[in-house]
Each structure stands twice: as C-alpha cells, then as structure tokens.
Amino acid sequence: MDRDNSVTKVPSGYIQLATAGRGSAGVVFYCLPRSSVRSLHAPETTLLPPKHSVAKELRTQLVAVKIGHSKLFKEVTSREVNVLQRLKGFNAYGKEGGRFAQLLDYEIVDDSLGHCSWLAVEAIYPSIQLEMLLYGHGRSFPREFTAHLFLQLGEALRFLHKELQVTHGDFQYNNLLVDLSSRHASGFFNLVVHDFSMSRELTVDEEVAINNHDYQLPYSDMFAFYSKTFDIMDDGWLKVNPVGDNIERAILFGSTLTCNDINEIWKRYESAARALRDTREEHVVESVERVALKALAESGRDCITDEMLLGALSNNGIDAKNNLNETEE
Against a cut of 0.90, is the pTM above it? Predict the structure, then answer.
C-alpha cells in the first residue's frame, strides 16, 4: 500500500497518494481530486479548519483510479465502464444489499473501439476484501452475520441478473468489499460489489431465458452466494425445509444452477435469514466490528494517513503547517 514508484501516472486531475491494488493488467491508486484541494484554497476561504478536520474531510473525497496501458486492460475497462454507467442509470447506489462501486470519471481512448485508458470510482475507505475478513487465522463469525452476508449477496446478484441484465463474471470474495464506514440498519457493515472488468451484458436470448427462469448462470457469479447459503443451513432447518438435491450438489460441488434454482434458494431462505439477522444483539454486532477492525489492521489497507493528506495540500499550494490550526477549537 505504499506510494507507487512505477512509471504509471495518474490523470492530471488527480493527486496520487498510495497504491490500493495491483492486477495483471493495471494498477489502482488512492487519489484525491485536485478540485477538492483547490476548494480548500479558494479566495473566500479566510480561515482553514483544524488539521484533523481537514484530513477527515479529504478522506471522504478519496477516489480509486484504475489505470493500465495494455490492450487487455483497455478492453475490460470499457466493459466495466458500460456496466457502471448502467448501474448509475438505475439509481442503484445506496439500495439495501445492492451497493456497487460508483463511477465518477473515465477517459475514452480516441479510437474506433472506444476503449478506456482509465476510470475513477468512489473509494470505499476504509475497507477490506470479504475474503480477508472471512479467512483470517482463527476467525469465526456468528450466524446472524452469516445471514446478513447471504441477504446482501443475494440482493446484489438478483439485481444484476434480473434488473440490470448483466453477469458480473467474477463475483467472488476478493471482489466484495466490506465497507467499514457504512452500516446496514442491523448494525452490520455493508458490502460493496466492485471490479466489473469481467462483466458481460446478456443477449436477447439470454434475457428471455432469465425471464423464463431457465438461464444457466456462470459459477463465478454464484460462488459467494453458494457458500453463504450453505452456512445458514443447519440440520434442523434442512429437516423442515430441505433445499433439494440439485441445489445442494451445486452448493457443495459447484455445479451449474439456473435462475429458477437461485429463485428457489432465495424463496426458501430469505425469510429465515432476515429473522436470524433480526435476532442479533448489540454484543454480536460489536464482536464482528472488533474482528473487522483487527483484519483491517493486519491487511495494511488503512494506509492513508493525515500526514499524507496534508502533504497533498502542501504540494499543491497550501502551507499545511502555517495555514492550518493545530488543535480543535
């Protein structure tokens, strides 16, 4: 998570702070929009707030800029931009269980294919990958939290497949962020779906198949949902409401499910999951929070310091030492 020293440069409208992630085709940087810094140095700004307040405000304006130069990157980023634009058109942001990365800006390469050279999304900060949270050494979670994950994963998938008519293509724990700054009404942290680089819009025939509930979904779109379904199924519940051999095989062995199977899983377990989540007590929510914060500390993802943010001001025309008050008044 240190500042990246490679030749990759972020667009001129952003101030690079640290590397958020790196893949085979590109790099993701935590950045500040230069417009955010300029707003703190506007002529009408006669008294800047205390240092801590400035850093806190700037942290809320962080963006994640994904950039790369390979042909593959430009192709997959173009697909990602298309899906994120459609999500924005559906006004999907903020819906319960259906939070997605929010597109802020992008650049189309000037060619006939309209490929993208970079894109910027709202940074989910601080956050950790769901994979990091679930699979840390010695971690276990209450069933109320498992039910919460099942509900948010299911709502997001159902929205993508039914409403948006797209498959994510890589709907796995490492592409699901636990947003440590946002909570559901239950008190548990919200999940955010990101990285739509493998997404694909459905064809007309596939849309018809989905409406008829017989479209076979890619396993990559169902892996996380399978797992959480299995987690909330205990022996007592299965005796009362068996899931069915075909669905249980899919959950255990990764065989293909149709939309009808997914609807059946949702029909059978949604009410039970909501009832289970609603039974949570405050100490359960607090226990999940403690584990999540420990996982964040171990991951090194909480890498944007106040000094780094104030340094961005100093490097862009504001003397952080002299112009910012030292303490809250």
Answer: no
